[in-house]
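Table S4 entry, DUF3223 domain-containing protein.
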Amino acid sequence: MGKAKPVTIAGRMFTSQGEAQDYFKSQKKELLPEGPIKEGLLFNALKDVYERYCDNSPGYELNGRLITAFSVDFEKRKIGNSWVTHPCYKVHFSNNEIRPFSVDKAVQSVANSTK
């Protein structure tokens, strides 16, 4: 197996892609602000990872839209015999469009990019 490759998101160094994904997945509902996330460390990290994901993924270009906020919904998913609460991220654009996105895919794209 290969050595874990560090990933930098919004100036923060993660020792591996998995650690970066865990950062986003470990956000707890109680610690998040009410309503959309429009500023702060989490906003900056989400914006950086999403913009870089768009740059590396044909069909996901921003096309002049600006990112105005992110939101997190929590849904229960059954994994094996257990139910877990899983954060689901959505990006809000300047044209009032809201789209869900996969943090795992976005982090993987950033980790595999040469930027």
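Residues 7-112 form a domain with the Nuclear Transport Factor 2; Chain: A, fold (CATH 3.10.450.40).
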